[in-house]
Specification:
Elements (H helix, E strand, L loop, with lengths): L4 E5 L2 E5 L3 E2 L2 E5 L6 H8 L3 H7 L13 E5 L2 E2 L7 E5 L4 E6 L2 E11 L14 E10 L3 E2 L2 H9 L7 E2 L10 E5 L5 E4 L9 E3 L3 E3 L1 H10 L5 E5 L3 E6 L2 E6 L10 H11 L8 H10 L4 E3 L4
Length: 288
């Protein structure tokens, strides 16, 4: 028997069991929305939004339009309390008192490197060291060098305010120069566009910031493939291997399916289609 919890983020309803979160949902377009911004808010692909809603004109979205989307996901790792960030998924899971409290999209480190500098978000365990409202941004030397190479004015310190890339809230972690912060670039969320930090939409950060406490544990993990046997169905969730850590991708798919203990229930044609599409949401690959 699975316990389902429903909670709201930015007016979006999420249903969660102990293994799955999300599902079929709707989103109402608000003023200022673009298809890319909506995709960032929901943590889904813009192209899938366009396809599922048969949108002909995406440059002019009418306010009040209801869009259908699916964000069914397999929870990548469950912990009693703390933060899990799955890099290929670009999603943050926050747990407290053995419950999944929040799930929201994040922006992470750039895929491609410039010169000798890599901006990948690192893997590993961490803890929350402190948090701050209206922070100053002390620009890391590596980013100063990038500014110089790109011919931009080199900034050393950025004061709090609307032009500060850290936004209004920052949660600092024990990983060097890797922090969770609000972003002033909402379209960069659910993308790989940061210098390693974890970017969060304002509405999500407003709720997350007061919940998270000093010394909260966390972990940055890398699971592009997730599989689950749940309620007599086999689910498979595949993301692109953005940081190129899995040379034998199909082997990892089979490995995760075997771990479900229900590989005999798998429809391999559905699996092949899932590998090809890599939708980033959980799909039913059960053989009926």
């Amino acid at each position: 028997m699975f316990l389902f919890i429903t909670f709201l983020i930015e007016g979006i309803s999420y249903a969660s069991s102990d293994s799955l979160t999300g599902g079929d949902n709707t989103y109402v377009v608000v003023k200022g929305d673009t298809i890319d911004l909506i995709a960032s808010k929901l943590g889904v692909r813009a192209s899938k939004l366009i396809e599922d809603n048969k949108l002909q004109e995406v440059k002019r979205l009418k306010t009040g339009t209801t869009l259908r989307y699916n964000n069914l996901r397999i929870i990548p790792k469950t912990i009693p309390s703390g933060i899990i960030i799955n890099i290929p998924e670009r999603m943050l899971y926050y747990f407290n008192d053995n419950k999944l409290v929040m799930v929201f999209p994040v922006g992470l480190g750039k895929i491609f490197s410039k010169g000798d500098t890599k901006w990948h978000t690192p893997l590993g365990e961490f803890s929350v060291k402190n948090k701050q409202k209206d922070p100053f941004w002390y620009v890391p030397v590596s980013i100063q060098r990038e500014m110089e190479k790109e011919g931009k004015p080199v900034e050393l310190i950025v004061s709090p305010g609307p032009d500060n890339p850290l936004g209004r809230f920052i949660v600092r972690t024990s990983l060097q120069n890797i922090h969770i912060h609000e972003t002033i670039y909402p379209n960069s969320v659910h993308r790989f566009s940061s210098h390693g930090c974890v970017r969060v939409l304002p509405k999500d950060m407003e709720r997350f910031y007061p919940l998270v406490q000093i010394n909260t544990p966390g972990e940055l993990i890398y699971k592009p493939v997730k599989a689950l046997y749940h309620n007599n169905k086999v689910y498979l969730e595949i993301h692109k291997d953005y940081y190129n850590k899995y040379p034998n991708y199909e082997d990892e798919v089979r490995n995760q399916l075997e771990k479900t203990g229900a590989i005999q229930r798998v429809d391999w044609q559905k699996v092949e289609r899932a590998i090809k599409e890599r939708l980033g949401t959980a799909v039913d690959v059960t053989k009926y």
